Amino acid sequence: MCDLTNQQAYDYYHEVTESCAKDYWLQFLKDRANRGVEGAQGFVDKIELCNN
Question: Where does the source fall among the domains of life (predicted)?
Fold first, then answer.
C-alpha cells in the first residue's frame, strides 16, 4: 500500500512542470478516487477546476 497522502500527490502535481508528470499525478488521484479513497475526488476536482 502506498503511504503517499492525497495532499502530497496534489502538491507533487503542482511542483512538476512537465505535462506528462502532471498527467501522472492527476491520474494517480483519479485512480484513488475510483477506488473510493476518501478525499481523493476533492483533489481531482480542484485540479480539473483550475484546468478549465
Answer: Bacteria
Residue 26 · residue 14 · CB < 8 Å? no
pLDDT for 15: 97
What is the distance between the alpha carbons of residues 47 and 12, in angstroms, rounded to a whole number? 12
- Whole-number mean pLDDT of the chain? 94
Phi, psi (rounded to 5 degrees) for 13: -55, -45
Domain ranges for the chain, please list them: 6-51
In the DSSP assignment, the letter for residue 7 is H
